[in-house]
Amino acid sequence: MLQQAREILKDSFGYDTFRDQQEEIIQTVLSSQDTLVLMPTGGGKSICFQIPALLSNGLTVVISPLISLMKDQVEALRANGINAAFYNSSLSEIEEREIESDVLSGGIKLLYLSPEKLISSTNSWLSNAKISLVAVDEAHCVSMWGHDFRPEYAQLKEFRERLSDVPFIALTATADKTTRKDIIKQIGLKQPKVFISSFNRENLSLEVRANIPKKEKMKEIRQFIGDRINESGIIYCLSRKGADEMAQDLKGYGYSAASYHAGLAANKRVKVQENFINDKTNIICATIAFGMGIDKSNVRWVIHNNLPKNIEGYYQEIGRAGRDGVPSTTILYYNLRDLMVLKRFAEGGAKSEVYIDKLYRMLNYAEATSCRRKILLLLL
Fold first, then answer.
1. Angstrom distance (rounded) from CA 124 to CA 136
2. Residue 260: which H helix or E strand, with range?
3. How many degrees, rounded to 5, is the angle at CA 49 between CA 55 and CA 261?
4. Cβ within 8 Å of residue 173, ≥6 positions away
5. In this structure, is the dihedral angle defined by the CA atoms of residues 135, 236, 337 and 335, taken in order, positive or negative?
6. What is the pTM assigned to this prediction?
């Protein structure tokens, strides 16, 4: 079957050889063993469930948190001649019925669902589908200690129990040991084989700038962008207001910039994202709401305007730079005010001790005086 997998890799995806660990992961999935995959952004996670899907007789269900991510992956699969569809809130009732019919007739190999649609469909039409594999993409969302938890993910364990004989594969770009254990627990993975690829992105430079006054920081950022006028980049901000202000400031100096956050209307967010992917907008000033699953290989730099709240989120965000392997720059600005604000947020919620511990690990990285790359890899 591995020979068939190699043929599909070449014929359907255009690659001559598998990347590090992909072949072993596929073999594990095909042997019906639960699997947890940690692979850097751009490392080829999707291949790890897409090829087993094509080698299986039934339907592969892919649980994915973002409509834009589903749309991009389904379009890419269809372009390669693979029968795939997404099922989420963007569809009309007629479109939903068509997809349900196609799934039940065996006309679709991969079905991407939002967690909300999965839960609402489990007791209805989806219960009649012949499911052979379930993939949980962006699996850090499952964890209550991850940075983007959604309540619907908490019900995945019940779905897993219903499909006791079906293998599950959970995939994420980053999760520390605590989050990994929580992912396994929350989904109910059965003695999963865990694959952790190297997180060393040698093409990314890591720079940290501490306690720079706001005016001087903005001057530095404008100068940095001015030296890279035609390059794509992302600036992550702590708040929606901060993202809006940053975008306005840069536009005022003639730079091609837009803000992106959950406070914008859905159609506006889609437009901003499409303009960035198609190189119509060079700079996105965003909260962490932006970037998950963005397939843009030529992001040349990522700036954090504030201290991130955990090392996993930081790693995932800088990982959106240099996905094509070309040298790219990351800069982290932080001050003690960032720490106080984030600590206040952490103290106000459940699991506050865990959040505060993660925050201080992030601070340890930022304040490091030795090689940050080694410290980053150690903390992950």
1. 20
2. strand 257-260
3. 150
4. 38, 39, 40, 41, 43, 45, 138, 140, 315, 316, 319
5. positive
6. 0.76
Q: For the segment 323-334, what is each residue's pLDDT rounded down to a tens digit? A: 888 999 999 999
Tokens of 201: 């992105």
What mean pLDDT is predicted for residues 6-20? 89
DSSP summary character for residue 41 = T
Q: What is the dihedral of CA 350, 353, 354, 355, to 10 degrees?
A: 70
- Which residue in the block uniquely carries the two structure tokens 């359907």? 12
What whole-number distance in Å separates Cα of residue 192 and Cα of residue 157? 14
Residue listed under structure tokens 């103290």: 347
CA 295 from centre of chain: 10
Side by side, the strands of the sheet bearing 283-286 are 204-210, 328-334, 299-304, 232-236, 283-286, 257-260
Nearby residues of 201 by Cβ (< 8 Å), 6 or more positions away: 40, 318, 319, 322
Q: What are phi and psi of 194, to 5 degrees?
A: -105, 130
Q: What is the DSSP code (8-state) at residue 173?
A: S
Q: How far apart are CA 360 and CA 55, in angstroms?
A: 45
How many angstroms separate the CA atoms of 260 and 187, rounded?
31
Phi and psi, residue 287, nearest 5°: -85, 180
Summarised one tens digit per residue, pLDDT across range 108-159 is 999 999 888 998 898 899 999 999 999 999 888 887 665 556 677 778 999 9
What are the tokens at 183? 């992912």
What's the whole-number mean pLDDT along residues 171-190? 88
Q: Which residues contact 322 (CB under 8 A, 6 or more apart)?
A: 201, 203, 204, 299, 300, 328
Cα–Cα distance for residue pair 112/109, rounded to 1 Å: 10
Model confidence band, residue 350 (pLDDT cutoffs 50, 70, 90): low
End-to-end CA distance of the chain: 34
User: Rounded to an integer, what distance in angstroms lies between the CA atom of residue 35 and that of residue 184?
Assistant: 9
Mean pLDDT score, 198-202: 79
CB count in 10 Å sphere of residue 372: 16
Residue where the block lists tokens 């993409």: 137
Helices 311-318, 352-366: inter-axial angle, 10-degree rounding: 50
